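Researcher: Good morning. I'm working through a list of sequences from a screen, and I'd like to move beyond sequence-only analysis. For each chain I'm collecting a predicted structure so we can compare shapes side by side. This is the next one on the list. No need for commentary yet; just the structure.
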Amino acid sequence: QGRIVESGGGLVQPGGSLTLSCVARGTMYTIYSMGWYRQAPGKQRELVARDVRGGIVHYGDSVRGRFTITPDYAKSTVYLQMNNLRNDDTAVYSCRMQDRLGESEYDNWGQGIQVTVSA
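Model: Good morning. Structure tokens for this chain:
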């Protein structure tokens, strides 16, 4: 299975913007979903945005209208554009790609990347 690699994290001021990138390297089967999740200290991991191939997109309530997920299935790449960032967006963001071969499905996660929103 492929290796999921995230990039683009870092420190940004409140109100600022940041774009995260994620690419699958190596062998992947048919990717049917790409998504971003985050986990803040002391909190459970939560959905940020998820795209299901065919046009279904889910956003977490706290990011809807501020974040945009852009998948590129041909390039096994997904982006997360984050605008109007707030302090409570601070978290480790992880990329998830789900692929399948026949009836077998696989769940692939990146190691996560830190996003810190602070003045």
